[in-house]
Design a protein that fits this description.
The protein is an alpha/beta fold. The protein folds into four domains: 113 residues, Helicase, Ruva Protein, domain 3, CATH 1.10.8; 139 residues, 3-Layer(aba) Sandwich (Rossmann fold); 155 residues, Four Helix Bundle (Hemerythrin (Met), subunit A) (Up-down Bundle); 235 residues, Ribosomal Protein S5, domain 2. The chain is built from 29 helices and 29 strands. The strands form ten sheets. It has a seven-stranded mixed β-sheet, with helices on both faces. Strands 7-12-15-1-16 form a five-stranded parallel β-sheet. A three-stranded antiparallel β-sheet has the order 3-2-6, with helices on one face. A hairpin with a 5-residue loop joins β26 and β27. α4 packs across α9, α5 runs antiparallel to α7 and α7 packs antiparallel against α8. The longest helix is centred in the N-terminal third of the chain and has 58 residues. The chain is elongated and about 160 Å long. The model has no long low-confidence stretch (mean pLDDT 87).
Length: 806
Amino acid sequence: MKTDQLKGDQLRRSCDGAIFTDVRSEKNGGFNEIIGQQRAVEAIEFGMDINRDGYNIFALGPSGSGKTSIIRRFVEEKASAKPVPDDWCYVNNFQDQRKPRCIRLPAGKGKAFRTDMENMVSDVQRDIARALEEESYDKEKQSIAERFQQEQNKRLMDFKKKAGEKGYTIQRAPTGIIVIPLKDDGEPMSVEEFSTLPDKEQQAMREKGKELQQELNKVLQEIRTREKDTQNRLRELERDAVLGAVDHHLREMREKYEKNEGVMDYLDQVKEDLVENAGSIVSAQEHGDEQEQNPLVAMMAQHQEKVIERYKVNLIVDNSHTKGAPVIFEGDPSLQNLIGKVERQAQFGTLVTNYQMIKPGALHRANGGYLIIEALHLLRQPFAYQPLKQALKEKQIRIKEASELFTPITSAGLEPEPIPLDIKVIIIGNPMYYYLLFDLDEEFRELFNVKADFNTFMERNEENMKLYARFLRAHCQDEKWLPFENSGICRMVEYGSELVGDQTRLSTRFADICNLAREADFWARRDKKESIQHTHVQQAIDAREHRNNRLEDVIQETIKRGDIFIDVRGSRPGQVNGLSITSLGDYTFGRPSRITARTYVGKDGVINIDREVEMAGPIHNKGVLILAGYLNGKYGQQKPISLSASVVFEQLYEGVEGDSASSAELYALLSSLSGLPLKQNLAVTGSVNQHGYIQPIGGVTEKVEGFYDSCKAMDGLDGSQGVLIPKANVKNLMLRQEVVDAVKRGEFHIYPVETIDQGIGLLTGREAGDRQKDGTYPEGTVNSLVDGRLSEFARAWTKFRPDTSS
């Protein structure tokens, strides 16, 4: 079967610059189109519009596909039409200061509420001081105190008179007021004098003194009761004075925030606390001017100052300047950066905190809008992923310390009231992270029901090529690059096909496109040109390749020196040039490898030496096992296959993976069996199935160029060298112009093959031969020789096999 080689125009798809003339003549303007990601955009739009629990978004795609920039732009456009969410603040919980309360206010009102509270407390502090300094208040206070004092003195004097009549008096002692006996001269009797009295007289005096002490205790108890009543009257007096100073301020606040239930409840607590701490509030104001001059006064006033601070408002979310719904991109999604934190400060050798040290996280700032997170950054942070899921499930933001997540023992701290959460979270990551989370975390499936799958390519048609041109023009304007000529745009389009390895597709990895355009601008400016042309883009590609291909040059030099055995001329039995690729980060190159095969009588089948020494991966091993299926199916229909064979990649010291060398290994086996030598000026790539059909593989462009470079390095091209590739891979060829020109001049050849028979015919120069009606192959063909050798192996095995009858 004759196989025609490919022509030059089949080896890469060029671009006609005429289609870009209209694009370049369009008026300058912004470029807001999202190119080649219609499926992903529809998913994002659906995820943003559906208002149901669990419909958060995971955007997956490889790096450089524009996920982040597309999502941010798309989400910002959508968010601009959404309502601005409410403000949030924390205030003191006067009933339990460990549990601060949150208050929700309309957008922009949080700042006003904070200012109103500061002003009100300042005014109240002043007015309370004035009220407590009023002459009428002071007179009433003195009057109450004097009446009590007079009443107390009168009761004590009456009792003292009564006790005197019985020979006793009262006296203050460390234990209180006590009854003591009098001497005949009316002076109090000392302990020594009392002890000199006869025992009988002492006993009588003790009995009488005890009775009087009991009466005195009753009097003192009545005085204490009256003292409590007086203190209550004084407190009532102070309370009435303070309420008079506070009420009208609170009334104004209530009228302003009467529709906000949270504020109204808070103001009720503020009122009670202001009355309770009126004295401290006034003291704080009185000491204000003395603190700078007297450190002792400053220390004493510190507690009093805290009384004033307890009325401040901690505004943690201020949307006064927000337009539309907020869009927050959190680049460092740690636990505290996501859900917020409670800070602490050192004070007198210990760490203290309060509600004013509550700091918001990204969830607070994005509440009512959208939060965008990189999956890699999120999963790298300890203790961040689980609290994020918990917040989404509970629909509230609960600020926690990291220690609370992994130990039941926690230090005393604040427990801020949770804030209700209404948010759409968008996680961006490569497919590996999505599928790992989907398989290993059931909660992930419930919370992220929208998958926005970004593609790495789009169809290469005229419309999309023009979009490429508009995209480049917009970036030239934004980045201040030189404008692209039509030829430069053409080369960029061709580079887009090279990136994706397909003549019918264009890459959507616009990060790579922009990087190349930026470098092309550099070379154009160095060349002192006013526009970017084809040569400048090519210069940027060549310069980038030169920066990255050091290892490739080393390998080609090693082949040229003969340290790696590669033949590009002549013929050898059981030996073929296979093609493989090596990927080094952002650079991939092809290289030839010698594959050899030996066949002999036995029952071991095809032994893959690379597999036996554990240098081969599972896909490569599968490809080798398929060879046994092909040989048995094609040549074992009328006889048993008694074959042992070994195949190996010679001088390969790293692992081998993939099945793209399976056709080359089969050619080597067929050559060894038939005795026909294989042309070494031809290299082979392509996988094979059990029926002998050649299947497409990856990296075909790099593999062809790799063998071309080897042939060129080893004494140059002689016009006979070439490569056999799967016919299905023809559309994937985007060979560099040098290789295309060599093919056009007849110096290099590329043969598309569909079957093993086609390939073995090219490699041996002899027909493979079709099976005839009697099951044999035409004499002298490759298949006839292989079939004959296998028949000889079968007879030899029958003759020499071990006797197993015993």
